[in-house]
Amino acid sequence: MDPADFKVLLDICDSCRWIKSEYEALVRLWNDCSDDDARELIVDLIKRFKVLTSFEMTDITKSISRHVQDTWSLSAKNTLFFAVSDDYESDGSQAFLQQLKNDFSPAAGWQEKNFRNSLKGYEAAFGNGKNYILFDDFFGTGRTIERQANKFIEYVAASGFQDNKIYLLAIAGMNSAKARLDELGLAYHSEVWLDRGISDIYDEDVVDSKRKLMKSLEKILGSRYNGQFLPSMGYGSSEALFSIHNYNCPNNVFPIFWWPIYSDSKPRKTIFRRLR
């Protein structure tokens, strides 16, 4: 490797400690870039990635607990959390709800029964004067939580019970999802809000060229994997730069950082991983 290239990669590792364990994947991605402009873009995006460590997650779940109890003024006696999973397969909302509930245990009244692992079996939780919190790990485009919230609103209305409120909660979310969330008319909260990695950051006169450069980079990637199509620029063109260390990467992230195959179907070594 050219000494100048080595220095750039070393500087990235110094400024982004989370990437040190993925150095080989970083080198592969560097070599996949066809020119200096592409490398410059990749370096800039990596440096702006929000990667939450286990220590940061501990602080975040504690902060979420305080927000629910102090800002929303919700108590254990009439509040229920639901992971927004449709089924019993493991996903991010379930994994982090398990972590979150530990931060409620010191407060009076909170029990296992306040936390539901999926939206299935919701009927048993309905009653008058209830607070329902729909929890997801990440608000990407906002479409998933919108769909789940609208479905849940219908369930609550059909139950015949009165004086119920629905809240939406996430660890992190995209600022671009706020308009969709606002339309729901429900209180919502995310501990971390993120701008789109290209469209919201670069000056207007270079945004198009940066987006074209990223789409050019994506041409090295396979168009389909395990029945799923490549989500160009991240699902819904989210342009997300977010992940939780050692957990499934959101599909809203630029696929150049996690898509597992090249256009010739050969496997890629990637900085982030996503199992689906």
Set out the fold topology.
Elements: H1 3-15, H2 23-32, H3 36-47, E1 50-52, H4 54-71, E2 79-83, H5 92-101, E3 115-116, E4 131-139, H6 143-159, E5 165-174, H7 178-184, E6 187-194, H8 204-217, E7 224-225, E8 228-229, E9 242-244
Parallel strand pairs: 1-9, 2-3, 2-4, 4-5, 5-6
Antiparallel strand pairs: 7-8
Write structural notes for this entry.
With 276 residues, the chain is α/β, with parallel strands linked by helices. It has 8 helices and 9 strands. It has helices spanning 3-15, 23-32, 36-47, 54-71, 92-101, 143-159, 178-184, 204-217; strands at residues 50-52, 79-83, 115-116, 131-139, 165-174, 187-194, 224-225, 228-229, 242-244. The strands form 3 sheets. Strands 3-2-4-5-6 form a 5-stranded parallel sheet, with helices on both faces. Strands 1-9 form a two-stranded parallel ribbon. A two-stranded antiparallel sheet has the order 7-8. β4, α6 (143-159) and β5 (165-174) form a beta-alpha-beta unit. The longest helix is centred in the first third of the chain and has 18 residues, at 54-71. It is elongated. The mean pLDDT is 93.
